[in-house]
What we know:
Distance between the termini: 106 Å
Number of strands: 8
Shape: rod-shaped
Strand order of the largest sheet: 6-5-7-8
Number of domains: 3
Amino acid sequence: MPTIKCPQCQANLKVKEGQEAFACPKCKKSLRIKSPSRTSSHERAWHLRHLDGNEYGPFTDLEVSAYIAESRIVRSSELKHVEHTNGAWLNVEAIPTIASKLPASPPPMHVQPPPIACEPPAFETKTYSRPPNQSRTKRSRTIVLTSIVSGFATASALAFVGVALSQYWPVFGGTLERGMAQPWSPARVGLIPIHVFVFALVGVVAGSLLGAGWVVAFTESKGE
């Protein structure tokens, strides 16, 4: 039996194993001791560790219970206690006093497969004058071809206009060629290339733009 001293009369008292409350037989003082083999629910003896490796504590039994209810201690957490785990880190599910306080795991969800239809579902169909991709490709090709043809035709027409202007009403050239030279004279003939080039260039640009604009307007009116 362990022996303790009475704090009042200093008498040696023998205490039975597990005895916590008794009276001193000499001075009649009521005494209360705590068994060294058991921890109180109010003693901070629990230590907590999560998967991140950080440790927290110590906590009392009441605090641990509260943390479980608040989901601050979950099934992946580990606890250490000098009595319940012999000072070793254990998963909370391996500690009976803690595992009984954990919330029940939700049952696995069973996804009900959709019913197999006897007939394929009906889809809304839409009729096109031609496949959309092919329609856009053909429209782009038409714009390019029309621009080339329109630009070439306009350039040719304006080239003839440039030839006529270079002989009778020259736009380019010096004062001698424009004012004093006669039509189809060597001086006026020398003005033909610059007039043809400029008016043909204007014809290519203007004709291409007009041709492309006409194709776009025509296809949009057709709803393509």
